[in-house]
Amino acid sequence: MRSRTRRSIGKWLPGLILVAPSLIVLGIFVYGFIGWNARYSFTDWKGLTPSDTFVGLDNYRELFADETFRNDSRNLIIFTLVFMLGSLLLGLFMALLLDKGVWGEGFLRSVFLFPMAISFIATGIIWRWLLNSDSGESTTGINKLFDVVGLDFLHSEWHKSDSIFAVASIALPAGWALSGYVMALFLAGLRGIPEELREAARVDGAGELRVYWHVVRPLLLPVLMSAVVILAHISLKTFDLIYAIDPGGPRTETPALYMWLTSFRGGFFARGASIATMLFVAIALVVVPYIWYSMRQERR
Amino acid sequence: MTAQAPTAPRTQTQEAPPERSAKTFRWGRFVRQLILFALACLFLMPVYALLVTALKDPAHVDVVKMWGLPDGLSLDSFKTVWPQLLPGFRNSLILTVPASLISSLLGAMNGFVLAKWRFPGADIVFPIILFGMFIPYQAIIIPMFQVLKDVGLWGGLDGLILVHIIYGLPITTLIFRSYFSGLPDELIDAAQVDGAGMLRTFFFIALPIAPPAFAVSMIWQFTSAWNDFLFGLILTRTEYWPITVALNNIAGGQTVPFNQAMASALLASIPTLLVYALLGRFFMRGLMAGALK
């Protein structure tokens, strides 16, 4: 009995030793740092040297009362909704069109996906110019394009407008960057559905629409879930795209930007840490159930 | 391609389903085709604007004609911005190569163990590693900044390389775990029967058949390190700025001429665009791996 245990330890122990370095670093740099960051959020650290004076929930209380933070959170909600809905609908639409087979599919897929390879900074620089809202002689970008095709009544202030559309217009470049990815996810999902299943439904007398609703839709739900989680977590943490288009204005600022401005520009590290902790909690609420679900599916 | 990662997208494998009526088939297909090409034009619109602007003679850049084709091609805008971009470009190359290599190698080891040389609790360890892929970097950046300063790694490329290696581990582990899970157990068992230990099995059986997974992992890591902005911005000194930070500082100002901004954005995107154009399949698989199942 004893020797058997020892032999089985001898079997798996080398494996554990091989992954140990990664486990230790990730333990420190992911979980340790998240805890460390949360700890900072309970102190009054501002300026260069970290402070050990605990102030409890003061930072959080102040944030909830802070006009800027409330404005930024509202911006983030609007951005997330517009960006996610837009990318999901457009991505699904493109996937459904491509799925049935069209001429030039490889080319089309490449075109829809290539923005994914470009950094958000480059994307932001290109789009800042497309979303320019100068009027008269200096009209450029999309507004200018509207002029060229005779649709000048569509002129928009884009991210400089005073309404909620300011932050919603950032969803345009974000959707440009990611709806191709959503398309790829859905297309892989659609192609993963065995044709026999659809055929069986057709034999039972279901029309194409009913086939989609009763056969295809339920099988695409897991893909939809992946897409939602990926888009949501990207949306919550997006910093570079907004920074490149419109750095630091109340119209488009989100908590991810506010966190950077507060800590690394302003030196209010404890405050920045509490914004970061809230971002973390928001993302964990979406991601943890997703990972848990995926792991359970896999074990089955 | 006998052992394809299970997360690979299954494309190009199925024919379009046969439709019953030839007439509706043609019409439906025509409309689909039209919509898709219109969408492709919309997706390419920023690229068109970028190219025509960057290729115009700087003296002739005129907002009134911004959507018009240039009178003649000129590379002057590129020539103007390239010297400014060069240090950032160089830094990013120096940074991305070791970051992708080391992260992939460690990911291969982790993936191999988690798929084929499991230890008790491996099922719990894997999701714990995986979660690192999704964490917002804002939530670790303050301690990271602090630690790198304390150990003297702040400001240079070595610290940034370390950061990219560590935060790349979850995705590289996932990629290799999926890949190795797809291999038959007999392969490993046979090696063990022959008396090979774990390291020998890894180096002589698993690694030699893993180049496809390496390609996916390297490309993923290369792209995400090249496109990173937050870490570069906070963890490096001016002379070690990676390309994204350099790009933002050159082309991000309100007074920078459009043609120069466009030329910079294009130059800074060339490496990842090349990877996408040449190795799109592997790039795709990296993307799909990120979507778990």
TrEMBL record, chain A:
<comment type="similarity">
    <text>Belongs to the binding-protein-dependent transport system permease family.</text>
</comment>
<dbReference type="InterPro" id="IPR000515">
    <property type="entry name" value="MetI-like"/>
</dbReference>
<feature type="transmembrane region" description="Helical">
    <location>
        <begin position="268"/>
        <end position="293"/>
    </location>
</feature>
<keyword id="KW-0472">Membrane</keyword>
<feature type="transmembrane region" description="Helical">
    <location>
        <begin position="76"/>
        <end position="98"/>
    </location>
</feature>
<keyword id="KW-1133">Transmembrane helix</keyword>
<feature type="transmembrane region" description="Helical">
    <location>
        <begin position="164"/>
        <end position="190"/>
    </location>
</feature>
<feature type="transmembrane region" description="Helical">
    <location>
        <begin position="110"/>
        <end position="130"/>
    </location>
</feature>
<dbReference type="InterPro" id="IPR050809">
    <property type="entry name" value="UgpAE/MalFG_permease"/>
</dbReference>
<keyword id="KW-0813">Transport</keyword>
<feature type="transmembrane region" description="Helical">
    <location>
        <begin position="211"/>
        <end position="234"/>
    </location>
</feature>
<dbReference type="Pfam" id="PF00528">
    <property type="entry name" value="BPD_transp_1"/>
</dbReference>
<keyword id="KW-1003">Cell membrane</keyword>
<feature type="domain" description="ABC transmembrane type-1">
    <location>
        <begin position="73"/>
        <end position="292"/>
    </location>
</feature>
<dbReference type="InterPro" id="IPR035906">
    <property type="entry name" value="MetI-like_sf"/>
</dbReference>
<keyword id="KW-0812">Transmembrane</keyword>
<protein>
    <submittedName>
        <fullName>Carbohydrate ABC transporter permease</fullName>
    </submittedName>
</protein>
<feature type="transmembrane region" description="Helical">
    <location>
        <begin position="12"/>
        <end position="34"/>
    </location>
</feature>
